[in-house]
Amino acid sequence: MYLSIVVPCRNEQDAILALIDRLSAALTPWRDQSEIILVDDGSTDDTWETIQDARLLCPFVVGIRLSTNRGHQIALTAGLEAARGARIMMLDADLQDPPELLSDMMRLMDQGYDVVYGRRIERRGDSLFKRATAHVFYRVLNAMSDVAIPQDTGDFRLVNRKTLDAVLAMPERARFIRGMFAWAGFRQIGIEYSRAPRHSGETKYPLRSMIRFAADAMTSFSTKPLRLATRLAFATLGVSAFMAVYVAWSLIFHQAVAGWASVVLAISFFSGVQLLTLGIMGEYIGRLYIEAKNRPLYFVSEELRDTPAARPLRK
Ligand code: UDP
Ligand code: MG
């Protein structure tokens, strides 16, 4: 059974050797049938040099260097496309996902599951803000989306070749990989784990990236925000009807209609609603535009592996 481990790395110079240490221990039962694919996502520190060092320690490490920073989900895609295994595990470089779970995941897959994903029951390592926003995000996403995306699940999972090929057949640029696996279907099961603190360095998901990630997820897996415009239209029509009754009532009883305050309030309220719906449409249209350009997802500037022209070793 050939096994691939895929790890996207962005400025992870201090974590990589520790990761290789723990991963190669976890890989002992599959020693001669595995590869660890480290994807350098345009790092600005010594990540690439560290990957080269890791190859000296561990010859089954494969290094892939992207031409520039493309983001976590695309770096992960690059690694998945390079993977040759019959089973593929993906995890973060910062050791927040314990590699030791591999043997449990393999056992579940032996029982016939196509995907074994990690569910974070506890996030010791993350700040209160991260935990709270992630909690809200997964619940809102699930309420919005037509696909049941497992809650509190990251990209830490073991998948088989059949499922991976299904996901790699999806050409979209806005990639929310955990959702794409959920959408693919097949037999899936979760395995609970506690998310450790980062090994070293800082999170590469500051608030801005988190918002972009959440917007990608929402727009990729739901068109409900678009329909929000219709609901808002009905709601504002309702409010307007009330106002009309009030105005008519004031006129009939010869009272002065309340002055500019109510007008200003109404105008700002309705323009807020209109701008919001325009903004939501903009999010979708922008993504349509990017998808329509159909550019390659990434470019590889260097690839280090012992058997360069190897064909997939899928069995
Ligand atoms: N990552 C990446 N490219 C990026 C941002 C992050 O390859 O542009 C990698 C990062 O090195 C790590 C994984 O994606 O292995 C998850 O990132 P991080 O740990 O910063 O996210 P968090 O755990 O804080 O959500
Ligand atoms: Mg992390």
From TrEMBL:
Q: How does it sit in the membrane?
A: Multi-pass membrane protein
The source's domain of life comes to Bacteria
Protein species of origin: Roseobacter cerasinus
State the protein's name.
Glucosyl transferase
Q: What region holds the Glycosyltransferase 2-like domain?
A: 4-166
Q: What is its main location?
A: membrane
Q: Which residues form a coiled coil?
A: none
Q: Which InterPro entries match?
A: Glyco_trans_2-like, Glycosyltransferase_2, Nucleotide-diphossugar_trans
Q: Which spans are transmembrane here?
A: 232-252, 258-285
Query: What Gene3D superfamilies does its record include?
Result: Spore Coat Polysaccharide Biosynthesis Protein SpsA, Chain A
- Show the taxonomic lineage: Bacteria, Pseudomonadati, Pseudomonadota, Alphaproteobacteria, Rhodobacterales
Which cellular components does GO assign to this protein?
plasma membrane
Question: Its Gene Ontology molecular function terms?
Answer: glycosyltransferase activity
Cellular localization per UniProt: Membrane
UniProt keyword annotations, A-Z: Glycosyltransferase, Membrane, Transferase, Transmembrane, Transmembrane helix
